[in-house]
## 1
Amino acid sequence: MTGHAVGPGTADHVRPESKLRSYARLGKLDVYDYYPSIAIALSAVLLPVSRFEPATAWMLALFLLGEVCVVMAMVALDDVTGFRDGSDAVNYGPDNPLRNKLRKPLVAGTLTPGEALGFAWSAAAVGALLWGAAVAVAPHRPVWTVVLVAVLFVFSLQYSYGLKISYHGFQELFLVALGAALVVAPYGLATGELSGFVLLQGVLFGLGPLMFGVYSNTNDVEGDRRVGRLTVACLVSPKGNAVFIGALSVTEFLLGVAVSVTGVAPWWFAALMLPVTVLRARQYLIGFRQGDIMRARRLGFTVHRVSLLLLIAANLLLGRGAAA
């Protein structure tokens, strides 16, 4: 069925597409930037290969599949809430031609709220089973890691639904914490340990989605304010929001310097991450000097992926040194 259900913010003329395509859009399968968290965890435990256990490979595979399901459930529930409160209708409406309405199947009318909720809860159930299986086959199951996985599952579903964490002033913190937990949890299941350097990598990884999220929030401030979604962009002046995003960009760089100086990371780590700093400065200039917020948001995806590759490289360099 590809009809055009009429609801808040839907249009009478939306190009139809298959249900499968609409469900893929609902689950945001094309926005995969949390999923490579597993690559960071893998790179941190891969070398020396002679010590890499088959059980670790199974655990990482199951954790990744569960992560995909849980994140799909999270973003689908976010769409349900955004449709119900009307914020998506504003942010993807005719006054915002740069946003593709088909990316929001409920606004476009290609899925119904009931279909979206069914998809979300089904994905959550499968994700819970897969994460349970990952814990069961893991080489190590320290209590803190098992608790972290459980907390990660519960709170992921509360992002914009239930407790609505993102609506009550905690969106920015949540995005970083989610990324960090998705790195630390599988690493803990693989090693039974909590590494300061891996925790730092998790935070830097989480800053990636945050740093394209805050540009989205800058663009979506009108719709978010209308429904009481308390992002920083809604709570402060445009100048204050620009200062906040600039401070986040600087903090990302200073974290790398701090861990290099204190010995938590290798001395060369801050230098390795300099390309991210350069790209982050460019992102800020595009957004707040040239005034092209959506172009700056798109660049954020590139910055995040460059950061990911450099974090993996850092782990492999360390692992190679340990194996030598």
## 2
Amino acid sequence: MPSPSHAVAQAKQALGARLREIRLVAGLTGRDLGDLTGWHSSKVSRIEHGRQTPSDNDISTWCRHCGADDQAGELVASLRTIDEMYVEWRRMQRTGLQRLQQAAVPLYERTTCFRVYEPSLIPGLFQTAEYALALMRAVVAFREIPDDSAQAVEARLQRQKVLESSDRRCVVILEEAALRNRIGDVEVMAGQLGRLLTVALRPNISLGIIPIRDRAMWPTNGFWIFDKERVLVETLSAELTVLQPREVALYAKAFTELADLASYGAAARTLIASAIAALDT
């Protein structure tokens, strides 16, 4: 998978290429468009080659003078995707982890369907306090940021309350490795796997587990789909936000394929029980 920074650069280039195509279809040169808009022709070139990010107004002006007003809305949506898609973890976490947990609350509260794929961790919505604390302490140590782990855990547990509403649905696909990747000690993992068995019984939650032996799709980062609105992808260095409808649909397609690989019901519970039994070895 390309790095987030590479993905941003590609997105800027793709936006510029679309704007160039609109200009060419309109039969305008870069100088022509510059004269119509009052811009220097070099600005047109920089935008088209992804070296300058246009504003919302730039896109609207471009489309208006090229007779393509009907395309302005989609292009502005693409621009906002670029603006939001790459946020460095260090900037988000510079004051600790609590603020980051709280910032996501509005998104969680307006989401009616969560689709979550995690290859190596139990997702935050299902975490026990002990598991979350062990994980956050590891993050704090690695990133060398202020330690507000206890407060961040409390904020994460508060966020889990969104699943108490029967109007919200949560579909989670885990790799079997997520059950066996030890976060904290044996007791912490036993408690976490036990909670997983419990939450999987809720009527608004669907839990699928992809057995290691059945892995048939290429490796990918974990990702969360919030309704059809956006996708969040967490990497080592950043959080990638995807808003472009075509890209959201691509993640939805990947989620469907991953879901087809998963085991459910009794078969999933057997995999969890096996992971619990393996804690004693």
## 3
Amino acid sequence: MNATNMVQGNLALKLETPAEPTFTVVQGGRSGFQPLTVNPACNQQAAVAPARVALKVPTIVAVAVALTLFFVLAMSVFSARHAAYAESVSSVTYETIRVQPGDSLWSLAEEYPIEGLSTQETSDMIRNVNHLEHGSLAAGAHLKVPARS
């Protein structure tokens, strides 16, 4: 080992720090940089406590109005869809069929569609009308399905 790098005795415990610490902030991108010397004593509070964002009353009112409008619009779309579903279901007449091997609620909903309802909604309706807990069907079982128009 080189003798000049060795520290003996109490000198090993002595910490020498500069009187005023500084660091360098590098600005720029991949193409190059411009070093800036910054005194951390001036920026110490900014680093410790993040700046608080104060929302102004007009901003809060605008957000509240937007959320209210969104809620009202969502509820009107939902209630209109529910009304269309209820109207379609109330006018349905049923016929009883025998389940064939390979039949599913989806295939029956496609085979016996209800005007104004999607295949998923028709499938759900067939499951509800027949009080089925799950979607699997047993061949030979009797089910109520919408009458063909």
## 4
Amino acid sequence: MHRLAIVRRLEAVGFRAWPAASIQYDGSWQVRLTAGHPSKRLNSVNPLDPSDHGDVETRVERAAQRFSAYGRPLIFRQSPLAPPQLDAYFDAKGWRRFDETTVMMADIRKLDLDATLDHLPVRELGRYVDANIQVHGRDKSIKPGLTEVISSIRPSSGWFVIEEPGAGPVATALCVHDSDMAGIFEVATRSDRRNKGYGREVVTAALRWARMRGAEQAWLQVGTTNEAAMDLYDRFGFEEIYRYDYRQAPDNSADE
């Protein structure tokens, strides 16, 4: 049985930490759309009440019209808050299930975060975004959209960049401090600098910053097939709280 109270809280801090440009509601279904960024979390329908499953077919079609107006494929993000009847509807229609993600938490107060060099967050958003794009290997065309998303984050956020002399940025992370919670996002190590400890270094820096600001619990989301990241977070003491995945009609195509 899922602990729905903590799921609801993590979903709420997650929405604040990675804000969509447009948010509308159909009952308790949160419709998130962002023209400038293709992230599925920013472009998906998020059902938030297991009991809200009335008139499914009409509501799914209504959501499809909204997504079509944005030029986005219709995607549902199915957490434990989604009604089982909605998944049954998708199963009957042949909707595919993809990109399963685990949401994990760790008690920052219990973590040993002193065995690494300290790195302060960078101050210039443009510098962080450029490093993020380089480290992730993303197309530079995403810069305006990524800048808009990060600049729209309302809770305090720290932008972390690890640089190697002569090599430039090699690892990045984004930490969002929201009350006693700290969300870790956008963790990446440049492909030619992996397995050198930079991932652990940048996550440690982010967690230390959050703990110094009063955060008590850290949380993050990671794809269940990302074995390297899962191993890293396991060594920090993160434990799974719940999982979510995405559903999409067979005749649709999502931006990955």
